Amino acid sequence: MRRFYLISFITFILILAINSCKPSVCENKRNLFLVSENVKMINFASLKSMKRTIKYLENIACKNSETALPIIYFDSKKSKIVDHASRNTFSLGIEPPPCGNIDFEYDFDKILEINLDGNNILIEGKLMPLDSVAQYVYYQYLNYGKRKGFSDMPDGNGMWLITKMKRPISDFEPIIAELIKGYIQTAEDFCEAIFDKKICELSEDEYIKFKNRIQFHLAFKYSDDLKPILISG
């Protein structure tokens, strides 16, 4: 009898251990935030400020001509940027700024601008609460012409996180957590509209087609000259 209970206990512990090692989300959903398989992890702990972060991104893309997509690891459970991957992390691709010798024009309807000004969050120049970030991600990608100033189509969109040059990137962690939540829901709704399936149910070919239609693009910007319009709603 003791042997039976011992075996049952060991089996229970093994099941718990196996379940604890399983990813909290499927691979399809985990890879939503990457537009390339060639990636380079950024150690934000050593960069400290927005200015140093952007300088680092400029150096690897322009001075060093590296083609790897810079990424950060974001722990969705802790809502923090971390220095290693785990079952709770998402790898987020970060778009380097255009090199100085490239003449680049932005279509600002394709960009969701989020400015962290002191303790205020301004989305497209409007003072908004933190929990509205996810909804605005949805507006940006799945607007279809309903709201002025947002993209008409899901493809080709991106998001900018903007603040003062000396401010640490870690101040954006609550906003990044909301961006992830909003983008996953947006992508899930788009997937069901196109394929009548959940993201985790897509075949490899379907997933490739899906990722070609909607992609996550995130960039950091700094400006000490921003004069935001503090209008709510």
Task: Write a brief structural summary.
With 233 residues, this protein is of the alpha/beta class.
Quaternary state of the chains: single chain
Strand content: 15-25%
Q: Compute the separation of the termini in Å.
A: 67 Å
Radius of gyration from the CA trace? 20 Å
Largest sheet: 6 strands, mixed
In DSSP terms (H or I, runs of 4 or more residues), the helix count works out at: 6
* Parts with pLDDT < 50 across at least 5 consecutive residues: 8-22, 226-233
Structural class by secondary-structure content: alpha/beta
- The number of distinct β-strands equals 10
Indicate how many domains the architecture comprises: 1
Anisotropy-based shape? globular
Strand order of the largest sheet: 9-8-5-6-7-10
Helix fraction by DSSP (H/I, runs of at least 4)? 25-40%
Average pLDDT metric: 85
> What sequence of helices (H) and strands (E) makes up the elements?
HHEHEEEEEEHEHHEE
